[in-house]
């Protein structure tokens, strides 16, 4: 299955977004044990938006890189990696400077994509296994 522009990685990102939203919301709820702070809410929102945009950029870069020579693809991926982390560092520095964005809340959603991908893969495998067993 491919996305309208032909990039199948967009579908993976689209499937990740609900899980990212849920985990971010759960993290925000856990943070309420220490009391409500608007800076934490803003931090989680900034972190969530950044992780989605970061993975969108990554998916587009991968899609374009596989059509290039090995050397060009390596350079493209390195630039993507470097720019994603430089932007994250800048976001964190801004959060520290302005004080109305909690820097830890910005960073926490960055941990979720691997977990979401693993859970989605597990659900997909379980669905395939159930389909195979229902055929028998």
Give a description of the structure:
It is a single chain. The chain has one domain (9-135). α1 runs antiparallel to α2 and α1 packs across α5. The relative contact order is 0.15. The protein has helices at 9-31, 38-65, 70-98, 103-107, 112-135. The protein starts with 8 loop residues before the first helix and ends with a helix. The chain has 5 helices and no strands. The chain has 136 residues and is mainly alpha-helical.
Helix-and-strand structural type:
mainly alpha
The topology string of helices and strands comes to HHHHH
> With helices defined by DSSP (H or I, 4 residues minimum), what is the helix count?
5
* Helix-residue proportion: over 70%
Mean pLDDT: 90
Distance between the termini: 26 Å
Q: Give the domain tally.
A: 1
Q: Which overall shape is indicated by the principal axes computed on the Cα atoms? A: flat
Gyration radius over CA: 18 Å
Report the oligomer: single chain
Strand content: under 5%
**Would you count the extended β strands for me?**
0
What can be said about the biggest beta sheet? none
Low-confidence stretches: none
Summarize the structure.
This protein has one domain.
Which key features would you list for this structure?
single chain; 136 residues; mainly alpha; 5 helices
Helices and strands, with pairings:
Layout: H1 9-31, H2 38-65, H3 70-98, H4 103-107, H5 112-135
């Amino acid at each position: 299955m491919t996305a309208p522009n032909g990039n199948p990685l967009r579908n993976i990102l689209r499937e990740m977004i609900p899980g990212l939203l849920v985990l971010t919301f759960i993290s925000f709820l856990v943070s309420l044990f220490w009391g409500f702070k608007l800076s934490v809410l803003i931090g989680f929102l900034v972190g969530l938006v950044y992780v989605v945009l970061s993975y969108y950029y990554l998916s587009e870069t991968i899609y374009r890189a596989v059509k290039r020579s090995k050397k060009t693809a390596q350079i493209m991926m390195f630039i993507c990696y470097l720019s994603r982390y430089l932007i994250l560092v800048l976001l964190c520095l801004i959060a520290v400077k302005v004080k109305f964005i909690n820097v830890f809340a910005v960073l926490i959603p960055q941990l979720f994509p691997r977990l979401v991908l693993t859970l989605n893969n597990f659900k997909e495998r379980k669905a395939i296994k159930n389909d195979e067993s229902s055929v028998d």
